[in-house]
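A favour, since you know our structure tokens better than I do. Could you add the entry underneath, on a fresh line?
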Amino acid sequence: MPPPMGRGSLPGPKRASAVPVENFTRADDSDWIPSDHGAEEPSELLSLTADSELIEMDTASPGENASGKPPQDIDAEQIVADDDHEDDEEIIDGLEDSFKEPDLFLFRHLLSDDALQGLGKKGWSPSLVALLGKTRVLHALAGGIVLAALIATIVVLAAMPSKKDESGAALVAANASPKPLSIRRPAVPEASPTTRAAAVPVSATDENAAPRQIPEAGKSCAAWSKYPEFPWREHLEAASGKVAANGPCGLFGASVAQIAAALEKLPKVGPCGFDFIKEGGLLELFPTGKTDRRSPNMELLFVADKLFEIRLNYRESVPLEIEAKDLSEVFGAKPAKSKDWAGRKIQTVADGDVVIELIEEEWYGRTLKTMVFASAAVRQSLEREKSQRASAEKEIANGDAALAKWDIEKALSHYVSASDYVPAFGYAYVKQGVALTRLERFDEVEKVARKALERSGEFRAHAEAFGLLAVVALFRGDVAKAIENFDSAAKTDIANGFFASSAEELKKGVYAVDRVARTAARMECRGDKGLKASEKGLLARGNFPSLEKYFEVLKAAKVNPSFAKAKKAFAKMECP
């Protein structure tokens, strides 16, 4: 069974290792928490970049070749463009030289009496010379026309850009600063061909995909009062009252604006796009009052601006006492039990046109619980997207497993496959960037970060992409640009405090002890312990602008009693 459509279940199966790995948001100075995608493993994403490790992507920028490898740099393209201009200049020079040939422009000699007399002296017939004299006005007119045409030709050729010029300009534009975020997802380019193309299904975002109609959500379901008590039911009942509806099916079909107005008192993030559905939208609400990626939340999913799914992500901090048997007693149907590919336990009960799911996921010794209300009809119409999402998430999970074993190239291949399945999947590009930062291929990190910004419609993927760009800027020695990108990330995803804290570290020079400890562990892993990384690359990943600053904060951090313990723990993760 494909995984549920909501974001809360995105992460994937738990790892065999008890040590968190690559995909998390820093909770505070001593803790790693799941990143914005829900129950994920700790990572080096920007938000994971608590260690200043943005997730590393591997996608190529616009213009990459069919093999999936990035193109040559822009300078190389510009050289080709300059060659084209040289060809144009040769043509122009040839036209200018033609004016110097008297035999080609005889009319110039026929415009003066001296020229006519010269022809007579050369033995021309007097009658012919006289005739030429009488018609020289016509010759002058014809000559003027020809001259004007030639001049116009020269001007057009000189001004005309070559095709390679346009190509070069496109590459420059692709590497320019990203445009401000919009809640509308930008058009998704076609996935670049790969050797795996034959195995990749048609993308849900493919413009050539067969057209399909999203059905009405259906209005048959029980009132909220018929349901057993569960956390946040009061918010859903209040929203239903404001849109003159009752029960979950009464909310389905409402627009983003209607739902946002009905739940205006709850802190919210969004709306933004939803990468797995071409016309999808996502609105995130925080009923606990704390707008933080670590907090329990509600995710509302839309298609064509119509609500079709409500996900209540309680995590482990909000008790969910309701069980499937309680629902089956109300609706007279035995719950269906299943597991998805990631091992999540799912119990399903039907309430008329509504599908109710109770989901449990074991995550590093914790049990994360989610309750879902979805339109059965709309869910059914989105089976293709669910299947593609499952395939993409499996690739992410396989990539994470390879990364945990330090098989970075294999991990990268899986992350690329994930973006092949769903070209708009911003998180896949972010993961590629994480792998590429480990390989210190920072030019490619920049390209995949740009691709995440171009293709994804989700603010969380955009924020992580800005984080990747901040690490690239640090590697290049541009601290101001790094701060700018961290600030952009913080404004893009206000529920992730990691980006703002990273910017503050660079501005004030005050660092969290665990960040220093992790960088110290990496430094010791170099050389004999097998970590192939440069000092410069490790400093950038650790959010340090210079070796001097690192040594300064390292000296202060060593005094902290937790430093040695944190460093030892990070060494188990950071040494191959």
Q: What stands out?
A: The two ends are 35 Å apart (CA to CA). Confidence is low (pLDDT under 50) at residues 1-112, 161-208.
